[in-house]
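Q: Sequence in, structure out?
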Amino acid sequence: MKIFHLFANHKFTGPSDPAMVLATAQAAAGAEIRFISSTHPQAENVLDQSAMARGLRTFHGLRMPKHFHLSSLRSDVRKLRTLIAQEKPDFIHSHLDGDHLVGALARTQDGPLLIRSTYDLDPPRGLRATWIARHTDLWIAPTQQAAERLASSKNRSREKIRIIPPLLDLERFKPTSHTEPSKPPASTMKDKIVIGVVARMQKHRRFPDLIDSFVAAARIDPRLHLEILGRGSHQDELARNPARDSGFGDRIHFPGYIEPSSYPLHLAGFDMVVFLVPGSDGTCRAAREAMACGVPVIASRRGLLPELIPTTGGYLLEDEQHETLTQAILTLAGDENLRRNLADGAKKYSREAFDVKLHVRTLLDDLDHSLASI
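A: Exactly. Output:
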C-alpha cells in the first residue's frame, strides 16, 4: 500500500506531530509513505527535516501555503498530478484545509482515494469545504462528538467516517520514577509542587487569568511553583510582565527553549499540568503528552478537552472563573493520594486511547478493505 501524506505547513506546528506519528507507524507496518509538507521559498522546512529524521520519504516543490493562494494552487495541483502519475499511490491523506484542496483537485477519476483527518471539534466549513467533501472518500475524526458533528455537516455519510483518537508515540512519552509507586518520602515531595504549562504565549490562551489563579493559590500554599514552557511574540505582555508584577515572580519560571530530546523528561517532572485553551492543534497534544507521562491535567471544557481528559486522569473545570482554577490547583496540591491516583489513571487511559501501535494496523486493514471494494 502506498500513501501520500500532505501537510500544508513547513513548521512543526498544529497537528503536525500526530500526522507524522501516524505516517511513521504506517511505514513501520510496511506501507510505502511519502510525507509532503510545504516548500517555503524563504524559510527552512523544519517539518521536512523532522520527517526525514523519522525515516520518512519526502518531496520538495509543493508550495501548499497555509492560506489560499491561486497561483501556487495551480502549480501545486500540476506537480502533485505528475507525482501521482509517476508513483501511483493508493491514497492521499490530507491533514489541513490547504492540502485537502490540493489533494482533491489533483486526484483523477481513477486516481488515489482521498482521506482527511480532522483535529477539531467542528468540521471544516464554507463553500470550498462543501465541494471538497463530495470528493473525499474517508474522514478520520478524533472523538465521538467530532465524528457526530462531521456527519451532520454537509450531510457526510457516516459510513465514510472513522474515529481514531489523536495518536502519541508512547515510547517517547512515558512516566519517570517520580510517578511510579516507589515514590520518594513524603517529606521531600512536599517541598515544592510544580505546575506546568506548555503553550505558545498568544492573546487568546488566557495567560493573565492563569497567572492570577496561580498567584491566588500561591498565597495559600508556599510550595507552589509555576513553570511555563512556550514562546511567542506577546510573551512579555501576556506572561513575563504580569509574573514580575505579581509579587510572586520568584515562583513563576520561564525556562526558555527545551531541546526535543529533553522535553519528555522535563514534562514528566511536573506535578500537574494546566491546559486552558486549545491552540492550532485542536487535539491538545501537550495535555495528552502530559497524561502519557503520568502527570494529571487540569483542563477547561473547551473544544475536544472534555473527551480527551478523563475524570480518572485529570480535573475538568466547571467554569472559567479564575477562582475555580485556583481551587483546582489547591485541591490537587493538597492531596498527594489524589495526584497519584490521577497520575495512574492518566497513564492507563493514554495506553488505552492514544497508543499509535493500537490503531495503525486497524486503519491499514480498513484501507485495504476500501481498495478491495473499488
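Residues 7 and 287 are 22 Å apart (CA to CA).
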